[in-house]
Design a protein that fits this description.
The complex is a heterodimer of chains A (500) and B (343).
Chain A (H helix, E strand, L loop, with lengths): L18 H4 L4 E2 L5 E5 L9 E2 L6 E2 L4 E4 L8 E2 L4 E10 L7 E9 L19 H10 L12 H5 L8 E6 L8 H8 L1 H15 L4 E6 L3 H13 L5 E6 L8 H9 L14 E5 H13 L5 E7 L7 E6 L4 H7 L9 E4 L6 E2 L13 E5 L18 H5 L6 H9 L3 H6 L10 H5 L6 H65 L1 H7 L1
Parallel strand pairs in A: 1-14, 9-10, 9-12, 10-11, 13-17
Antiparallel strand pairs in A: 2-8, 3-5, 4-7, 5-6, 7-8, 13-14, 15-16, 15-17
Helix pairs in contact in A: 4-6, 5-6, 5-8, 11-14
Chain B lengths: L16 H23 L2 H23 L4 H5 L3 H12 L6 H16 L12 H12 L1 H4 L14 H11 L8 H4 L4 H10 L4 H5 L12 H17 L6 H20 L7 H6 L3 H8 L10 H21 L6 H18 L10
Helix pairs in contact in B: 1-4, 1-12, 2-4, 2-5, 4-5, 4-6, 5-6, 6-17, 12-15, 13-15, 13-16, 16-17
The chains are: A alpha/beta (500), B mainly alpha (343).
């Protein structure tokens, strides 16, 4: 384990509140009465349902799929009957409803037959890739990017696999719990991923205050002879667990703007993703469950729970002893980047690492924004080295071009600037709104451009038709005249002849 | 169960404008106490008068602008402005000067531009400069620091002079007024005397002016405390003091007889107050990391230039105001390189 790291700019030290959940053993949630699967698990296209209302489904059965390369199939997490395919509230920042498949479980948990692979070390790489794709695995750190797509590095030279166990958001301990409970699955997953990508070196990064996870990993590493894997403890600073920040801390390499980690020779995967890959390859098990941290002062028994994807949050919170009187805000994810949910009827999705319930005061609900005093604390805290005070100025006054010139779109919305702002200005909210307005404007421009092109095409077509019509008329006329002339000629031919 | 939604981050704020201002006020205590010790109760009267005026002016402006009173009166920014100005004024300034300066600072320099956060110029320094230009004689008559004069006014004596312009029996205006050490140095140098010769005057101490140097040390202590608490960033004071030290040392080494010791510049006049409390006003200063160093250094150099070749013995207020104008440009040209962008 190295003690030397590259620093990224900014970041903040947060109260971690990890002891709430990390000191409890991993609990296994019972089969919920209902499973809910939004067809949109992340931004982009919806998957197509492969089942109809009334169908009986088995655990592990594919219920929705999309042919798009940036999508992952969805599997039923238990057996039961499809009772609805309808529009419902989903855990998505838009707050809009979307189509969900609803399964009423039968409690029998009958499963399709999972096909295990005897020895992945001898399997062909395309076979492994296909397994990962078929298992519906997505990034489990929160972004839910399809893993098979991320493993497709487009021929770039990769020399390092990073497994991200640097769980830097407060409260969340699901990765810590996973590493302590199943270190062998994570390292097995690392070996598979290394084989798929074709790299010789892997770093598993954990935060400095996860000593037990590091110990568990180290023990398995030595026992099972993973020589090419290093276990590294990184400083507990937020957002060290951000993909680009972690790569910078570990390697000093900076992913170019609009680039991906593969551009600097790195593939980064969450440790949970690696464990899911291991299960998919060695047991043939699709991604139908994950560890979720259910925590916060609003929960009676905070703990880590192995929950089926699709489980309504209400059933999970009930399993954790229900709410306390402090339960005032429900957040999916951590306090810094998590999404506040309007209702606990929404389901756990593949990227749900944490269900956090807390009171408003602790979550900054009472902020009284004052004018910006340009103290620059935000710029000091920004991990991507932006100048938030300037971005705020331009975003607020709708000077969108200027905001873009100040690299608005490089903002990762980590919330560090918000956290340190003495004027308590909701900066990230301004930046999100400005981005939204710019994207909407660009969309409108594209639409307008499209409409213009269509209009011009129609104009051209009309003119063309007119021209063709006129030409046809002219041809017809010419033909007629010719015919008339010919007729006249034949009629008067003898005369002509006579004349000649 | 239903929950109210809000945008992330979901964390309680750790800091507030009022907390920052309160810490600035606390940090002013050692320097202010030294001033009080050496220049008497007039400092205290000025301070109370200035704070009262500032709060009244702030309340008036907020009412006229239909803004809520409470959050802005309790942000302590008006109090900081008032105290900075009060501590820059001569101890026996007539009351109407203090009131005029503070009222101008709050009403014109602050609220006319939009209030907290929007003023391009440091309000305290605007108030100071208005007084300096309008009433130059009053503004340059300082009391001799205690130990240099046998006149002891006490609270009532200071009160009578400040509010009624009445001097106690046997004391006339000239007995209590005296040029500042920086002023003395400048005038005497102009008369052809050498620095070491001028320094023999008993108004100079080890570092700078007697009394004055202690106030400077007090402000330095407060400033260091603010740096430790991260109330202010080190770059502006470091740039300011570094710039001033560099240029004063350069000229001192070139010609020690005609350029005072760098310590006079560092511990004389408003240098320390300016470096830690005035130039660091976030609203009017440069905000980028590099920009702050540049901003501070340029102020430090301007201070030297004005003190040496300008028309005034001290140049902190003018330098700060001049660089306030340049702050946006400094910000523009010192933008940091965003992650992932080419250098």
């Amino acid at each position: 384990m190295l003690g030397l790291f590259w620093e990224f700019h900014g970041g903040v030290r947060l109260n971690r509140h990890k002891e709430l959940s990390s000191e409890q053993p991993l609990a296994v949630a019972p089969i919920p009465k209902q499973l809910i699967y939004p067809l949109q698990q992340r931004g982009g296209r919806n998957a197509e349902p492969l089942v109809a209302v009334g169908d009986t489904v088995l655990k592990g059965q594919v219920i929705a799929q999309d042919s798009h390369p940036l999508s992952a199939p969805i599997h039923a997490a238990s057996s039961g009957v499809v009772t609805a395919i309808e529009s419902r509230a989903i855990p998505h920042p838009s707050g809009l409803d979307d189509v969900c498949i609803v399964i009423d479980t039968d409690g029998e948990d009958r499963a399709v037959r999972f096909r295990s692979l005897k020895d992945f070390r001898r399997s062909k790489v395309p076979t492994l890739r296909q397994r990962i794709q078929d298992a519906g695995i997505v990034g489990m750190g929160g972004a839910a990017f399809p893993t098979s797509a991320k493993l497709n590095t487009g021929g770039r030279a990769i020399d390092l696999l990073v497994l991200n166990g640097a769980e830097c958001e407060p409260y969340i301990t699901c990765d810590d719990c996973l590493l302590r409970s199943w270190p062998e699955r994570v390292l097995g997953g690392a070996a598979i991923l290394m084989r798929v990508i074709g790299v010789e070196r892997c770093i598993v990064a954990v935060e400095a205050d996860m000593p037990e996870a590091a110990k568990a990993l180290e023990a398995v590493r030595i026992r099972d002879g993973y020589e090419h894997v290093e276990i590294v403890k990184v400083p507990s600073k937020y957002p060290t667990g951000g993909e680009k920040q972690l790569i910078q801390v570990l390697t000093g390499r900076e992913v170019p703007v609009r680039g991906i980690p593969a551009d600097v020779g790195v593939v980064c995967q969450n440790v949970g993703t690696a464990a899911a890959v291991y299960a998919a390859v060695t047991e043939g098990k699709p991604l139908i469950e994950r560890i979720v941290t259910v925590t916060g002062p609003g929960i009676a028994q905070p703990q880590n729970v192995l929950a089926r994807i699709g489980t309504p949050i209400a059933e999970l919170t009930a399993f954790c002893g229900g709410y306390t009187p402090q339960a005032q805000r429900l957040v999916m994810g951590g306090p810094m980047m998590g999404l506040a949910l309007p209702s606990d009827e929404l389901p756990v999705i593949k990227s749900t690492n944490c269900i956090l319930v807390a009171d408003l005061a602790a979550m900054g609900g009472e902020k009284q924004p004052m004018p910006c005093i340009r103290c620059g604390a935000c710029a000091e805290a920004c991990p991507v080295n932006l100048v938030p005070q300037q971005l705020y100025w331009h975003s607020r006054t709708d000077q969108l071009k200027k905001a873009q010139n100040y690299n608005l779109f490089d903002c990762i919305e980590c919330g560090c600037c918000d956290y340190v702002c003495p004027s308590q200005i909701p900066l990230v909210q301004y930046f999100r709104a400005a981005k939204g307005r710019i994207l909407a404007k660009q969309g409108e421009q594209r639409k307008a451009e499209h409409a213009r092109l269509r209009f011009e095409a129609r104009q051209n077509r009309k003119e063309q038709e007119k021209r063709e019509k006129a030409e046809a008329m002219a041809r017809k006329k010419a033909a007629l005249e010719q015919a008339q002339a010919a007729a006249a000629a034949t009629a008067s031919a003898p005369t002509d002849k006579e004349q000649s | 169960m239903r929950f109210a939604v809000a945008a992330s981050p979901h964390v309680a704020p750790t800091n507030s404008v009022s907390r920052i201002m309160q810490q600035v006020l606390l940090a002013l205590i050692p320097g202010a106490f030294a001033m009080l010790w050496f220049f008497g109760a007039g400092i205290l009267i000025n301070a109370v008068l200035a704070v009262a005026t500032a709060l009244a002016a702030e309340a008036l402006a907020l009412t006229l602008r239909r803004r809520p009173l409470k959050p802005y009166l309790t942000d302590y920014s008006a109090v900081v402005t008032a105290l900075l100005l009060a501590l820059s004024l001569p101890a026996l300034s007539p009351w109407w000067m203090t009131v005029t300066g503070v009222a101008f600072a709050i009403l014109i320099a602050k609220h006319l531009y939009g209030g907290l956060g929007y003023n391009p110029f440091n309000p305290a320094m605007v108030g100071y400069v208005v007084l300096l230009i309008s009433f130059p004689k009053h503004m340059t008559s300082w009391l001799p620091p205690s130990g240099l004069s046998d006149v002891s006014l006490g609270l009532t004596g200071a009160w009578d002079i400040i509010f009624h312009g009445q001097y106690p029996a046997g004391v006339d205006a000239d007995a209590v007024a005296m040029a500042t050490p920086l002023d003395t140095m400048k005038t005497q140098l102009g008369m052809g005397r050498s620095v070491s010769d001028i320094w023999t005057d008993n108004r100079f101490g080890v570092l700078a002016g007697r009394g004055w140097q202690w106030a400077a040390l007090g402000y330095l202590a407060g400033g260091v405390w603010m740096l430790k608490r991260k109330v202010i960033d080190w770059r502006i004071p470091f740039g300011f003091l570094g710039g001033l030290l560099a240029i004063s040392l350069f000229f001192f080494l070139m010609d020690p007889a005609h350029h005072p010791y760098p310590t006079l510049h560092l511990f004389g006049g408003a240098t320390m107050l300016g470096a830690f409390f005035i130039a660091t006003d976030p609203v009017t200063a440069a905000t980028t990391v590099t920009g702050r160093l540049v901003y501070g250094a340029l102020i430090g150099m301007l201070v030297y230039i004005i003190r040496t070749w300008g028309g005034y013995p001290d140049g902190v207020a003018f330098s700060v105001l001049l660089m306030n104008v340049a702050a946006p440009m400094i910000n523009y040209y010192t933008r940091p390189r965003t992650y992932g962008h080419k250098p």
